[in-house]
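Notes, Module 5: Reading structure tokens.

Key idea: the token line is not a picture. It is a compressed description, and you learn to read it the same way you learned to read a sequence, by spotting repeated patterns. We will look at two proteins. The first is printed below with its tokens.
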Amino acid sequence: MSGGSAEQALLTAACAQMWRHYDLPGGSAAGMTDSKLPDIQAGYEKGMTNVMAGLAGLNMVYEAAGMHASLLGFCLESLIIDDDVLGAAMRCVRGIEVNDETLSLETMREVCIEGPGHYLGHDQTIALMQSEYVYPLLGDRSSPKEWNEKGKPDIVEQAIKRKHEILDAPPPAHIPAAIDAAIRERFEILLPRKAMGG
């Protein structure tokens, strides 16, 4: 088994195409790596296999985050890094929408004929920066100069820091107190409310 290989990515894409051919929901593995730690190999293997699965139209991807050594290992830091990987993969899946609005002919006319000759100050530019770009939580898109000035942040170190922030924070309460109380009144719940993030 080589979970991060191009061959596995092709097999996953083929599974997706078969599910779609028969108009069935289906899942397959993607996003694993053969690497034993969150490194460059892990990044390119996870990115390649997740994007191929998504572009092939897979309904459900499992083993998509945190998995190492072809499913023999798991890493919390990779789970956090893979959030960026999956965000980028889903942006690829969304694709480019082409219609009268996205062709922006009126915007081009305004900028080139009536305006300053560049798009930086146009409202549409700002709107598209919010709707069309995925901004990674850990990935660094700064210039080399800015990156150096920030102390050359390393993605694994950033993931370790974020992991500690998550683990040290009180667990979130996913069930509002009033609903929790109503459930507990009707059913014998043995798990204390505090254990559920309350």
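Here is the second protein, with the sequence above and the tokens below, as before.
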Amino acid sequence: MIGRLGIAVPLAAMAAGMAAWLAWGQPPGARAVPIRGVEWAGKGVWLRAELHTHTRFSDGAHTVDEVVAAAAKNHCDIVAITDHTDGNLKAVTPEYFSAIQAARAANPDLLVVAGIEWNVPPGKGQEHAGVLLPSSLEQQDTLAAFKEQFDDENKEGENPELAIAALAFLKRAGGSGQLPVMLMNHPARVPASTSAPVLTFEGLHRAAPGIVAGVEGGPGHQRSTPLGSYKRPETLIDRWDPLVAQVGGAWDTWLAKGLDVWGAAADADFHHENGEYWPCEFSSTWVYAPDRSIDGVIRALHAGSYFGEHGHIVSKAELSATPAGQTRAAVAGQRLTAAVGSTLSVALALDVPDVDFEGKPNRVDVVELIGVSGGKATVLYSGAPQAPAAFNVPVTVPAGGIVLRARGRRNVDGGPALQFYTNPIRVATAR
């Protein structure tokens, strides 16, 4: 066979060269470990996002222009407009999309994502989900039909099948193109609701895994009393929803069942200044996207390529797992396959800004690694962050594999801690 430059290359040599290419980045003699998902790992871009805001098109106090201008002032790279789809409100009207387009034109350096906050059946408005749209689905007629047929605020009765039908509608609307991404908002705020995520999320995720990506682990209303507007018996744990913050809670249960669920979003849920922070003033979801585009952001959210934080305590929190003898690492949102009994080097890299959201000297006090295996969740490491990595610990791959996620906190005297959470890395075992 003729290779490059017209030189004859034996087939055996070509095969050897292909094997070497497949093991690119590995030491000589090492066998490459399969890693899937987040194909842009190592060549993406970090973008600071606010994924949950409201304007005068629903129950917000400000115009789209004002919300977007505030996001730009607070150094967001991304802001999503997610007004409620109650039938008597004006989300997904022609004026709604026109206002979003005008805000984009006025803020060309900011990615303004069109979205909605959907009243998820069968809860009759007690539970909400953010639905963020790729560019191909910004169609007023499609979203108006979705609102009319599937928003559950004022529908009579409780139809548990309506949510499944709504997801099928969105899947058909997406066709062969990019699908919207859905995150269940403030997931434990109304635990008695028939549409509470602890009851319904698993079924929705299994019905439409390409749309239903996860939950909003860091809910908004962080200036309110009580925090997050969470009323007893459910309260936030250091500002994070208990479904995510409890080791061994709902998130870890879903992960243990093999579901790839993302819980590391932290949002403002901005409506007005009373009880809430402006976009990116206090909460941020940092998205590691393949490129700086709306569709790149949607792709990253689907993949779990992001982390959430409060108080500006970190601007990068990158969890990685590297198999022994390899140089290529898996990152949050990815899956790798490793042999039972093999060793992973699990590390957390942090960028800690000099000052926090109040302009005060910044720090992170504790970092933790959580492992989910054998149906149980355990804190595998807890301690003060080290250098150059916040931690770098060996983890032995157990039978059945393991899921790894990380978090960290800055302690606050007399108040809840400021925290960040990463999404997980799933480690499967070779058969």
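Summary for the second protein:
- The radius of gyration is 22 Å.
- The chain is about 20% helix and 25% strand.
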